[in-house]
Amino acid sequence: MRFTKDHEWVDLEGDTATIGITAYAAEQLGDVVFVELPAAGKAVKAGEGLAVVESVKAASDVFAPVSGEVAAVNDVLSDNPETVNEAPEGGGWFVRLKGVTAADVEALMDRQAYEAFLATL
Amino acid sequence: MSLQTIGRPTRADFHDAAEAPHGHGLLQDEPLIFELGGWDKTGVDLPDGDEPADDLAGFTRAEPLRLPGLSEPETVRHYVRLSQKNHAIDLALYPLGSCTMKHNPRLNEKMARLAGFADIHPLQPVSTVQGALTLMAELARWLETLTGMPAVALSPKAGAHGELCGLLTIRAAHEARGDGRKTVLVPTSAHGTNPATAALAGYGVVEIAQTADGRVDLSDLAAKLHPDVAAVMVTNPNTCGLFEREVIEIARLTHAAGAYFYCDGANFNAIVGRVRPGDLGVDAMHINLHKTFSTPHGGGGPGAGPVVLSAALAPYAPTPWLRHGPDGFSFAEHATGESATALGRMCAFHGQMGMYVRALSYMLSHGADGLRQVAEDAVLNANYVKARLAGAMSQPFPEGPCMHEALFDDEWLEGTGVTTLDFAKALIDQGFHPMTMYFPLVVHGAMLIEPTETESRRELDRFCDAVLELAAAAKAGDVERFKGAPFHAPLRRLDETQAARKPRLRWTA
Amino acid sequence: MRYLPLTAEDRAHMLGVIGASDIEALFADVPAAARREALPDLPAHAGELAVERTLAAMAGANRAAGAGPFFCGAGAYRHHVPASVDHLIQRSEFLTSYTPYQPEIAQGTLQTLFEFQTQVAALTGLPVANASMYDGSTACAEAVMMAHRVTRRRRAVLSGGVHPHYGETTRTLAHSAGIDTIRLPAAVDDEAAVLAAIDADTACVVVQTPNVFGTVSDVTKIAQAAKAAGALTIVVTTEAVAFGLLKSPGEMGADIAVAEGASIGNALNFGGPYVGLFACREALVRQMPGRLCGETVDAAGRRGFVLTLSTREQHIRRDKATSNICTNSGLCALAFTIHMSLLGGTGLAALARINHARARALAEAVGAVAGVEILTPRFFNEIAVRLPRPAAPVVEVLADGGILAGVPFSRLDPAAALDDVLLLAATETTSQADIDALAVALSKELG
Q1: How does pLDDT run across B1-32, given as a tens digit for each residue?
Q2: Is residue A79 less than 8 Å (CB to CB) from chain B?
Q3: Quick one: how far is CA A83 from the chain centroid?
Q4: Where would a tag sit more exposed on chain B, N or C end, judged by fewer CB atoms within 10 A?
């Protein structure tokens, strides 16, 4: 699993990357009440808005950590947005992108680097 | 992701779910109308007889309308009981920063209800409403004189609608020159309506940085004033309660870049009668009649947001235009002839007449001298609160006087376990409405206090004493008093998370 | 000054606490060049009596609707409002409270908003209603913007029966979003034209019933065609009392219903403040403009209400908000809710039937005047009639005789070349004697 400074995580299997927000981000946001997800088939570029995650008083943009095409979104979140708080780095995943370049993922922080980054915040 | 954590804890603490009283003292529990009313009951006596509607066969409701009714005594009691669960400016200080919760004179209400104002139709022949048009002209004259601007569009229905009117006027002025500028600059400290309005008007929004002393960063502004910028929107006095000292330079830079200077007039109360925005280089400014000119907030409206305009923008003002000729007043209601350059209509009819009457009643009561005193007392009251609380609470911009509102942050709460939200909720238990919290966004844990000029010294002292006592309790570690607060309001903290996750937006059986 | 509590002694004391030499010191940040000593063009303060006299003189220069026979409608209708409504909305706790951002001490406002939303949902036949818009026209414009967000299309088709002010308000707002507003030619009934105008680029069709000519329509066919084309149907109603009798927008397949709600609970007020009603299908709720009140519980488990789904709104979403609206029509919505609670469903249905009956009597009397042709095929409480000559001067003459004889269509849309068309409305406030007086005056003037 790789991480960004914007608190997204990426887990690559083959050329498909599963993306979500980190436990740190979920904790900072508080209770997630809604997640706006993209349509399957949408092509996204790294750095573009991928999803919006809402708590009661805030809406935060989730950026695509890598480029790819939306292969699937996590339908569980539409009825149970609290899954993001309960299992941010597991069942609370947001999007699967296909056609992802492995090198793009490798370029991101590993867990150790991300934790070191969190310690600086 | 853009980690937006500004805001507040969102879930109520359920630590004493056992307590569930059924009303106490003067406060009665009150069900919803749908649980009280009768499906066949009505509190309005209408002539008997089933009037025919056979000519509308096939166009009428298939099922009868399922809404309950109540008799008059039940209705009165229902809404009086509900009313008692509200805080109100008539009850105590209502120090919401940037909202200008001042006393609402009852003379204004009486005047607005005169049949000659309340019972006239917007499309009666203008010959039968010359008094109404005279009133609109008189209100326009007051607004133009107080702001030093040559024109005003009266019709916008609230502050944000006025902002939209201002930006659409600016857009029309640029378009008339074939200039398709696409960007509006807005300070980071702006009201949310500013960027929302710019986006609605079809512009991209670029933020301007703020200086360490809480003002617009001129160098950042200058750097971002490229030829694509249509307008700069600045609130003055700004949302930190500070006067933009360099406002004349902001206007000069804006104009030099071919852009227009929009001023958010939400805080006009601090300078009314003393400073004319027209002298500062402003091209357009909305005025919230429900703030500066005392029309009641009514639990969220209605407001009114007339926009004063510079000579450069006046030709693009929306219809209707008010005109005076040999036969008295008239309207130019369509963008033809003399008003051919008008941007169109902001709304049906002519705007918020009921609010115009109230605002003019207030202006006539105060006069030019009284309005000047309004600004002075509003600023004096805010600075008094700032001075009294300065020893106990930290301020992001402590240097110099504030204008009509005093801004504090939450640095002083660090380590106490008490948040801005907790502190605000505890203030409810002291009988006051909380101050504006977490706004402006540029200040961490912001607490923005606007007392207004209609508070007596005694009420200000009562408020300051309560805040100081709470501040001492927070610092002394009395966290329980805050975390569960409010304890003495009609309800305890509400579960906003549940409300948002599983929205229930109407009653169902 | 009666609204200012501070005395000279208070001010001196407070300046001392602040540590300021005088009041000017507090305005030190204002550039000297911008400080005004006085505004000589404006009068000095005045007592209540003087202000009352000034304003009463202005009010007296207007002809109140209640002063004689009155038939104006065209989007603003004169109805009787029970005395208790105006009394209750003047309760301090309703009149002088702010937007209910602190729900623990705003349950009065919040619960009435929840009642309002439920009533509007029932009237429009749609499951979700917001806590009000400024008025019907701005609600219509916002609905078109919402349809654009939902469909990502840039073409809005407006029936020629939509109130021209609503069309213009919509075009003003839609223009800046790059939405093409197609306003079909003014027509008493234009179902065929609307159907023909729907295409694959259409974001929404906007139809009004009863329309500006008074025509009652069933828009089911249009809604079906719009749905098939992937467009939304927005149904506009400018006379909320009609909900008591006619098929609701939801029943006819509307995706969004907008209405002017002023007829219930509110006075004519020369056009404002009014109250915009806005309702839609459940699936569209996150694209709605405006505030929403929702039910929840407090820390003690008691039912309570809060503003919710606020992340749509400007104070949180800023430039990505669904609308810039902040202040809405709270107190007018409260008046609507109280009046509606007095009426109940049966009361509103009876009131609607009375309105319709008065309009039938009006149509009968006016239709019998030589040279007058009734244009509206099916009406609720308003009809369009064609006079043998331009309507505006006729209305002027009748006004001189004490009769406010409706609205010439040319006042709303001079470009439509319908100068001879006159809009006439009747409500429960219209007596048979009023109608007879109108018919006699029209006969005399046209004779």
Answers
A1: 777 665 555 555 544 444 444 566 778 889 99
A2: no
A3: 13
A4: C
With b for 16 or more beta-carbon neighbours within 10 A and e for fewer, the A75-114 pattern comes to: eebeebbebbbeebbeebbbbbbeebeeebbeebeeeeeb
Task: State pLDDT tens for residues C345-400.
Answer: 999 999 999 999 999 999 999 999 999 999 999 999 999 999 999 999 999 999 99
Which residue blocks in C177-253 are alpha helix, DSSP H?
191-197, 220-228
Judge whether A27 is closer than 8 Å to chain B, CB to CB. Answer: no
Average pLDDT score over chain C: 97
Give the pLDDT score at B337: 87
Reading phi first (left if > 0) and then psi (alpha if -120 to 50, else beta), residue C269 is in: left
Which one of B3, B5, B494, B495 makes the best mutation probe of the A interface by having the most chain A beta carbons within 10 Å? B3
Determine the length of chain C.
Answer: 447
Q: What are phi and psi of B243, to 5 degrees?
A: -80, 135
Whether residues A58 and C320 touch (CB distance < 8 A) is answered with: no
Rounded to 5°, the CA angle A56-B85-B11 comes to 25
Residues in B closer than 8 angstroms to A62, CB to CB, are: 1
Helix count and strand count (H, E) for chain C: 15, 13
- Burial class (CB within 10 angstroms; exposed 0-12, middle 13-18, buried 19+) of B209: middle
Tens digits of residue pLDDT in B485-502: 999 999 999 999 999 999
C-chain residues within 8 Å CB-CB of A58? 311, 316
Are A61 and B3 in contact (CB < 8 Å)? Answer: no
Cα torsion for C66, C70, C76, C78, to the nearest 10°?
40
Whether ipTM > 0.95 holds is: yes
Handedness of CA C74, C353, C117, C79 (dihedral sign): positive
The three-state secondary structure class of A71 is: strand
Residue A102 touches chain C, beta carbons under 8 Å: no
- Residues C2, C7, C9: CA angle, nearest 5 degrees: 175
The answer to whether C317 faces chain A, any CB pair under 8 Å, is yes
pTM of the model: 0.96
Determine the pLDDT at residue A58. Answer: 84
Of C54, C112, C356, the CB nearest to B364: C54
Q: How far apart are CA C173 and CA B386, in angstroms?
A: 42
Query: Could you tell me whether strands A8-13 and A16-21 are parallel, antiparallel, or unpaired per DSSP bridges?
Result: antiparallel
Percent of chain B with pLDDT over 70: 95
pLDDT of residue A121: 87
Distance CA B305, CA B286 (A): 6
Provide the pLDDT for residue B12.
53
Query: What are A4-14's pLDDT values in tens digits?
Result: 999 999 999 99
Q: How far is A111 from chain C (nearest CA, A)?
A: 32
CA–CA min distance C310, chain A (Å): 7
